[in-house]
Write a structure and sequence with these properties.
The complex is a heterodimer of chains A (about 525) and B (about 350). Chain A is globular, with a radius of gyration of 25 Å. Chain A has about 525 residues and is of the alpha/beta class. The longest helix of chain A has 26 residues, at about 260-285. Chain A contains 14 helices and 17 strands. A nine-stranded mixed sheet of chain A has the order 16-15-14-13-7-12-11-8-17, sandwiched between helices. In chain A, strands 3-2-1-4-5-6 form a six-stranded parallel sheet, sandwiched between helices. Helices cover about 30% and strands about 30% of the residues of chain B. In chain B, strands 1, 2, 3, 4, 5, 6, 7, 8 and 9 form a nine-stranded mixed sheet that branches. An eight-stranded mixed sheet of chain B has the order 11-12-13-10-14-15-16-17, covered by helices on one side. The longest helix of chain B is centred in the last third of the chain and has 15 residues, at about 230-245. Classes of the chains: A alpha/beta (about 525), B alpha/beta (about 350). Chains A and B meet through helix 3 and helix 11 of A and helix 6, helix 8, helix 9, helix 10 and strand 17 of B.
Chain lengths: ~525, ~350
């Protein structure tokens, strides 16, 4: 084989295929497509998400040079305030919530392109004036009619906002440009409302222009699941029912409902966490390799997983799902109140704050391999992780029973302390043959000095670039709701609903959750 | 008087044959309190022993962002017929993720006058196995070097700004690394020096309207600090390579290229105290695009004037020019730097 010369000649310069359209200076400088100039319009701009996440994320992107130079932000909300007041408030918030230090010079430049638009969400006049204002911004700032609408509002507001956007043709893409919408979770309350919500969105925006955000997917480690599985030759051959015993997915937090009582009491842990975040993690763990890394190829494979999840109906729910609610207890040495005593929570509430499920994915790869999923509030430690437990080695050599030879466990830590660890067996030094588990541990924070971008930074940039890989697709969302609905139905609408088990705050959930896994001869991982 | 290694660094002197044992002891003493981390082997060849203290400080800074095993090799021509001296040291810092103390190790070697041929063996025998080898070669490349060394290097970092005769060094480099060419990536800090300016220029032309002005580009002005002409030339080479200009001639401060249509394009290099590349101005008919450092500002200021008189002003990341920042930028980047090689090829004929 002849190696190409390391020093090319001048003539080796590559002519871009479409030299009229391609920026020749981008080559070698960025491995991701740069978004086009645009305006981000945030509905619900005075809310928490805008000040804590969205504006700090956009500021950090600007500081890293990842934003298009011509980018403007328009905040749309009901409260009366001027551009100047809005900018000042956001400046203070960004100083508080940004991962990087806010530099005044850059903030002033960035803030000069932030505007505030006051209107009721259902008032057509507000949209008429918005359309006019966006046109003026396009003319003055060169944003070329590209728009990203961010719906950071309650789902009940979606229909009014979207209808008005359509009525004033704000959903229409300019020639050669684009108009997109980002929808924040919850994507519905059940299958019926999700379908309705999706239809409302679809009446205004095509699916390719709809970005349903699940911030879990923007986390570095969640993105790393595919890299770990498909960029390493050693894992994929073992990633199936022949070598894996079971998978555990855990999302635990010591916090209670923290002021979200009314919302949480209406939704519960199953809707709040399992339907979206945990099923997304399950899909990334269980999916087949996509044909390529395009958004639809990846999402096609994820949808196949959700479709393969064995439905839980009637008595199956009582057998495979445990729901719990935290009672009074202690967290970090402090006494904490029971869920039913929380502010604005129904004192007779039967909303679950803990769920443990045994899920089966009925396809060839995962035949008879259970996925144990648990999520809960007021648990001893905070953390989200996926643990893949491999089958134990045959115990014939070391004079031990199968239970004594510990299994290999690969743990992908999503948060905090993102990283990957592998537990394996090793001989303890000495003349006797003593085998104990040891852990190989990789920590992002230790190995890489550079801080990871916040999930919202990555997701906003992807939406501006039109890359929907890390966003949920309509069929994915609806399939997930179909699975969840059956469980909710058994809990709330059957004649003999399974019990809601209380657990003391600061414990690892009700004893019945332990029973769920122990009857299969397994145990929950200690986090 | 010949120097001892303890005069040059603050490490613990060790016998060369016992380095691994001493490193192990170092980590055992700190066990539980610190985590050793290493993702690369970072070897630094220091052309002068006087710089070794400074290089140790640079390595200490680098380890904050790039966990590595550092191997610092210095030469002292006043040392004759003396054995190689070695010492070890650890650089520790709190991880950004939390309160964990993360440490990296540095092994330092001081070679005598005739030590150059020993470098490959010193590097090979002290690598953290299976990790990539990044070699930062300070100064000029020697006329004769060990071929096997280059075949082990994944990324070779150097600074062409320090070269007295660029074409000669390029030729030397070409010959030396030819056998290693499929593996090695050439990383010129003089190229990294213009990274933020190049990014800012690229960002301007991400805008379709500004991109439309590019075919009319007829002249370019690059402002550079005294002694940084080679940096400016590489930047001109980048424009030439990406726009497929061909070098014509160089007269005084002007370098002339032919664009794809055969039109003459003038690149003027202006010397002015300040940042290595103070700024760049592209003139395309009545449109102009300027990216420049402003005094007192940490950002690059981009000013665009369109033929119809519309003006835009943006701030873009300016980066830093100190050696630690340059190395950090370089170590963060991946890929083979094909664009750099094309930029170099575009200007070597007019140097």
């Amino acid at each position: 084989m002849i190696n190409p010369p390391i020093f090319p000649t001048l003539n080796a310069a590559v002519t871009p295929k479409n030299s009229e359209q391609t920026n020749p200076f981008r080559e070698g400088l960025s491995s991701r497509p740069m978004p086009q100039p645009c305006t981000v319009v945030i509905f619900g701009a005075t809310g928490d998400l805008t000040k804590r996440k969205l504006i700090p994320a956009l500021y950090n992107l600007a500081a890293d040079g990842d934003l298009p130079s011509a980018l403007t932000v328009v905040g749309f909300a009901r409260r009366d305030k001027s551009d100047e007041v809005f900018r000042t408030e956001l400046g203070d918030d960004t100083k508080k919530f940004s991962r990087s230090t806010v530099q005044d010079e850059l903030w002033q430049s960035f803030a000069s392109r932030i505007f505030y638009h006051r209107s009721e969400f259902g008032d057509p006049e507000g949209y008429k004036s918005l359309a006019k204002r966006l046109d003026e911004i396009d003319a003055q700032y060169g944003t070329r009619g590209n728009r990203l609408f961010y719906l950071s509002v309650a789902p009940s507001e979606f229909e009014g906002i979207l209808k008005n956007l359509k009525d004033f043709k704000l959903n229409e893409s300019p020639s050669g440009g684009w108009t997109r919408v980002i929808v924040e979770k919850p994507f519905g309350y059940d299958l019926a409302t999700a379908t309705e919500l999706n239809s409302v969105v679809a009446a205004t925006f095509a699916e390719k222009d709809t970005f349903r955000i699940d911030h879990f997917l923007g986390k570095e480690t969640a993105q790393n699941i595919m890299v770990l599985r498909f960029a390493n030759g050693i894992f994929e051959p073992l990633w199936n029912h022949k070598y894996i015993d079971h998978v555990q997915i855990t999302a635990s937090e010591p916090l209670g409902v923290e002021g979200r009582g009314p919302y949480y009491d209406h939704s519960g842990a199953l809707r709040d966490m399992v339907q979206n975040h945990l099923l997304q993690l399950l899909c990334l763990t269980a999916m087949e390799p996509p044909t390529d890394l395009s958004a639809d190829s990846v999402r096609d494979e994820k949808v196949k997983v959700v479709r393969s999840i064995r439905p839980l109906k009637g008595a199956d729910v009582a057998t495979n799902v445990v729901r719990g609610q935290y009672a009074a207890g202690a967290i970090n040495g402090k006494n904490v109140i029971a869920y039913r005593e929380e502010d604005r929570v129904n004192p007779q509430s039967d909303t679950e704050t803990f769920v443990a499920l045994k899920v089966n994915v009925d396809n060839w790869r995962w035949a008879d391999i259970p996925f144990y999923v648990r999520v809960g509030k007021r648990l001893p430690k905070g953390g989200t992780e996926i643990a893949v437990q491999f089958r134990a080695a045959p115990p014939v050599l070391f004079n031990k029973s199968a239970n004594e030879v510990g299994a290999n466990v690969l743990v992908i830590r999503i948060q905090p302390d993102e990283g990957i660890s592998l537990r394996m067996q090793a001989k303890i030094p000495g003349t006797a043959l003593r085998i104990e588990p040891v852990k190989m541990d990789f920590h992002y924070g230790t190995s890489f000095g550079k801080a990871s971008p916040e999930a919202y930074e990555r997701l906003l940039l992807d939406a501006m670039s039109g890359d929907a890989t890390l966003f949920a697709r309509r069929d994915e969302v609806e399939q997930a709701w179909k699975f969840i609905d059956e469980i909710e139905h058994a809990w709330h609408e059957s004649d003999t609903p399974p019990s809601l088990y209380p657990y003391p705050s600061g414990s690892w959930g009700p004893k019945e959750a332990d029973d769920l896994i122990e009857r299969d001869g397994r145990a929950w991982r200690r986090l | 008087m010949p120097q001892s290694i303890t005069d040059l660094t603050q490490g613990m002197p060790v016998e060369i044959g016992k380095i691994d044992r001493e490193l192990k002891r170092l980590w055992q003493e700190g066990e539980g309190a610190a985590t050793r981390a290493s993702l690369i082997n970072f070897a630094v060849f220091c052309e002068s022993s006087d710089k070794m203290h400074e290089m140790t400080d640079v390595i200490a800074e680098i380890t904050k962002d790039h966990a590595c095993r550092a191997i610092l090799i210095g030469m002292d021509p006043t040392i004759e017929h003396a054995p190689v001296q070695a010492c070890i040291t650890a650089h520790c810092h709190l991880s950004k993720a939390g309160q964990k103390q993360v440490c990296c190790e540095q092994i330092t070697f001081l070679l005598g006058k005739d030590g150059l041929p020993m470098i490959p063996n010193i590097v090979f025998s002290h690598l953290d196995s299976d990790l990539p080898l990044v070699l930062w070669w300070r100064g000029e490349f020697p006329a004769e070097s060990e071929e096997q060394l280059w075949t082990w290097v994944d990324r070779l970092i150097y600074d062409s700004q320090m070269w007295t005769h660029v074409p000669g060094q390029v030729e030397l480099l070409r010959t030396a690394i030819e056998p290693a060419s499929p593996r090695i990536t050439l990383c010129d800090l003089n190229w990294t020096r213009s990274l933020y300016i190049r990014q800012a220029v690229a960002q301007i032309f991400d805008h379709p309207e500004y991109l439309g002005e590019l075919p009319a580009l007829s002249s370019v002005e690059i402002t550079h600090a005294p002694g940084m002409r080679s940096t400016a030339m590489l930047l001109a080479g980048w424009l030439a390579a990406q726009l497929q200009w061909h070098p014509h001639t160089s007269i005084g401060v002007n370098v002339y290229f032919h664009d794809r249509t055969g039109k003459l394009v003038t690149v003027t290099l202006k010397e002015q105290p300040g940042a290595p590349i103070g700024g760049i101005r592209l003139l395309a008919g009545k449109a102009s695009m300027t990216v420049a450092h402003h005094e007192g500002s940490g950002f690059l200021h981009a000013d665009i004037v369109l033929p119809d008189g519309r003006e835009s002003h943006y701030l873009m990341p300016g980066g830093k020019e100190d050696i630690v920042s340059l190395l950090n930028d370089e170590l963060m980047s991946g890929g083979k730097h094909k664009v750099y090689l094309r930029a170099l090829a575009a200007v070597v004929p007019v140097l």
